[in-house]
Amino acid sequence: MNVKEQLLDLKPYQPGKPIEEVKKEYGLEKIVKLASNENPYGCSEKAKEAVKNSLNSFAIYPDGYATELREKLAKHLGVDGSQLLFGNGSDDVIHIITTALLAPGKNTVMANPSFSQYKHNAVIEGAEVREVDLIDGHHDLEGMLQRIDENTEIIWVCSPNNPSGVYVDSNSLHHFLKRVPKHVLIVMDEAYYEFAADEKDYPNTVALLDEYTNLLILRTFSKAYGLGGLRVGYAIGNRDFIHKIEPVRQPFNSNRVGQVAAIAALEDQDFIASYVKKNKQGLQQFYRFCEENNLSYYPSFGNFILIDFEQPGDNVFHYLLERGFIVRSGNPLGFPTSVRITVGTEDQNSELIAILTEMLSNQKN
Length: 365
Ligand SMILES: *Cc1c(COP(=O)(O)O)cnc(C)c1O
Hints:
By secondary structure, this protein is α/β, with parallel strands linked by helices. Helix content is 38%, strand content 15%.
């Protein structure tokens, strides 16, 4: 059997290590996973209740069009339901977009380092990947524009960017959008939208959809909403474009439990507001730690922080793993001397910071 040639060099996605595996491997009782930007407080109680109430409908296929979620989310966002496309997580939406637009002979422009799945899916489609290095954690929008040509189909902007945590401000985005040719789809991946939304110069991209018909926004219930395990992500865009790519979507790609939970979670905005506030306080704990230890970091507008330890990120990762904390080494993320840590609860952060402080002081002696 001959798989596509481009698959031979691809590795499957390397997720944060699962808790159970680490427990067994290291003989540890308690494990804290701060590796995949999951919500350390779980999800809204209302979402749990809604899932409990759905226990008797598992035999029935989900509503493939996610009608009720669509209506409620459209209202929440102030858009028309026809402007939404749901996915089995926004990973699935990324897959749908690349399948619909990319092919050999086409190319796609993205920042480096950024979220791995843009490149991964583009490679599978046999398209050329044009990566433009970040400047100080930020997208080099100017450099990205220069890489566009008549065969460019998609340009990806991750804001806030995973793993650097910084966002594209409103002015820069306006200036950029004006200059992207109309044949290029601009994907704004806003997986961490909820954490950055109240920054004064964080762009209101939904309001730009009327002006830019080639703009598509990605958001998810996996991060702030704490529903990563239930896989609900979505795109907001131009209705004609969404209609065109819809045939690529698998008929039941968003599942019944995910839809029910997302509807309830959406209605509990207090839960989100409270988490966003606690996340900000948690970031302060890490900033203080970095400043006390002269470590450089990017101020983060997500629920994670990338810290440069000036030593192999893999070493710091293993040190923490042996002590019951799973974080993400920056090595596979394009920052070999850094570690990406999801902001946990206040206690989890303090405990982790204490271990790191001890590690650093041992290294000095
Ligand atoms: C986590 C993440 C996603 C994927 O989220 P889903 O769980 O698939 O919805 C997409 N983009 C970025 C930048 C992410 O960090």
